[in-house]
Write a structure and sequence with these properties.
binds glutathione; Glutaredoxin; 2 domains; alpha+beta; Glutathione S-transferase Yfyf (Class Pi), Chain A, domain 2; globular; 248 residues
Length: 248
């Protein structure tokens, strides 16, 4: 089997897939895209992934896109070790968590990530260049143009932090049922959210779980996994790529 992963070291969606590949022990090669140079927006790449985003997995010439679809695909393809509950109801609960993570914290974390770190890429662009860059993004055009070169407003930052805090509180309540993972056993639900939590920690927002002991323990448990350590190679954290990070 041949696996080629088009991804970016720091991309949270890519990190979900890297963890899953390592958990399954599947050998893969990485093609690293520079998202601020626009590698994901070339016609060649959009032939693979018309959304112009990473990750994309090419498995024996078959192209699979969207990180959650990819990790479920990998689990079906290579069932050992299982990352999905054995029963239909268990799988339904896992997908409830995954859909919630995709809908709430995954978009929310982009707001402080851009405001604190990525905005610097646009400071030397003219307004016209920035608009053209935003317009070229099939999925993220509205997000970019709403953000502008100055970033999101304090109100929008607060709303996104509220959504992230709500996520953490839900995870804390769920882990209080016994854990040690979100559904008891380790699953794709855990893998789906850990990159967002790592990102929050990296950009100075770990206060969001300061009073959530179970979430804190869950993070430590994750850090011990070999797949986690292999996924977060040097350069996967923003602090490693960008140095000091603005904390407001
Ligand atoms: N639903 C997609 C979203 C992928 C996504 O948003 N990827 C980001 C990196 S985490 C990206 O490629 N952004 C490029 C851009 O904004 O131009 C997935 O989960 O694969």
């Amino acid at each position: 089997m041949s696996f080629v992963l088009y991804n970016a070291p720091q991309s949270t969606c890519s990190q979900k897939v890297r963890i899953s590949l390592w958990e399954k022990g599947l050998v893969f090669s990485e093609k690293k895209l520079d998202l601020f140079k626009g590698d994901q927006l070339t016609e060649e790449y959009k032939n693979l992934n018309p959304n112009g985003v990473v990750p994309t997995l090419v498995h024996n010439n078959k192209v699979i896109i969207d990180s959650s679809v990819i990790i479920e695909y990998l689990d079906e393809l290579s069932p050992q070790p299982p990352l999905t509950p054995a029963t239909p109801v268990g799988r339904a609960h896992m997908r409830e968590w995954m859909r919630f993570f995709e809908e709430v914290p995954t978009p929310a974390v982009r707001v402080p990530s851009y405001n604190r770190v990525f905005l610097r890429h646009f400071q030397t662009m003219t307004e016209e260049e920035f608009i053209a860059f935003g317009e070229s993004k099939p999925l993220r055009k509205d997000f970019f143009l709403k953000m502008g070169r100055k970033g999101y407003s304090d109100e929008e930052v607060q709303q996104s932090e509220n959504r992230l805090r709500m996520t953490i509180e839900r995870m804390e309540s769920q882990l209080q049922l016994g854990g040690p993972w979100l559904l008891g056993d380790y699953s794709l639900a855990d893998i789906c959210i850990i990159p967002v939590i790592v990102r929050l920690n990296d950009i100075g927002l770990s206060n969001l779980w300061a009073d959530c002991n179970k979430v804190g323990e869950w993070i430590l448990r994750f850090q011990e996994r070999e797949a986690f350590q292999k996924c977060f190679y040097f350069g996967a954290l923003l602090s490693e790529q960008y140095g000091e990070i603005k904390t407001s």
